[in-house]
Design a protein that fits this description.
This protein is an alpha+beta fold and 152 residues long. The chain has 5 helices and 8 strands. The strands form 3 sheets. The chain has a 4-stranded antiparallel β-sheet with strand order 4-5-7-6. Strands 1-2 form a two-stranded antiparallel ribbon. Strands 3-8 form a two-stranded antiparallel sheet. Zinc ion binds next to helix 2.
Length: 152
């Protein structure tokens, strides 16, 4: 049964239905969204079955990983960890930028420099003495990665 009502979240006039589309029914949600405000919480959360806050990778230089949605920026940032080489349990190896080019905004380039600066046990590679790397703990790396996460 359908009846006219006002959306509790965005105050638009909408048609209320007894059935709510499934959370993965993208087409139905797309169709419904036409009748609600752009930022309507009910639409955004698919009737409160998705978290209110969603996160995105804001760093071009991290490539295109889209970790699965999480409850916090830090949990989301964990999805980036597999991009880094785990040298020993909980310790990740970060390369210096010497001789490398990276894409990204000035903020991102500084982020990579700061990340390398924050590493310990810096040493050159045996096979490429001009290239240095250092290690950083998972916790500290996550502190950095959180800065690449943007809440949307
Ligand atoms: Zn609405």
């Amino acid at each position: 049964m359908e009846r006219q009502t006002v959306c509790y979240y965005c105050a638009r006039d909408v048609t209320e239905s007894d059935s709510v589309p499934g959370v993965n029914d993208y087409e139905s949600w797309e169709e419904l969204s036409r009748y609600h405000a752009e930022d309507c919480e009910w639409i955004r959360t698919r009737a409160h079955r998705l978290p209110i806050h969603r996160f995105e990778n804001a760093f071009e230089s991290l490539g295109d990983p889209s970790p699965k949605q999480a409850e916090s920026a830090r949990e989301y940032a964990r999805g980036f960890l597999p991009m880094f080489v785990e040298d020993s349990p909980g310790q990740y190896r970060i390369d210096a930028l010497i001789g490398h080019t990276r894409i990204g905004s000035a903020t991102e380039l500084k982020w990579w420099d700061d990340l390398y600066d924050a590493t310990e046990n810096k040493q050159p590679y045996d096979w490429a003495p001009a290239d240095w790397s250092g290690t950083i703990s998972e916790d500290k790396l996550l502190d950095f990665l959180e800065k690449a996460v943007q809440q949307v």
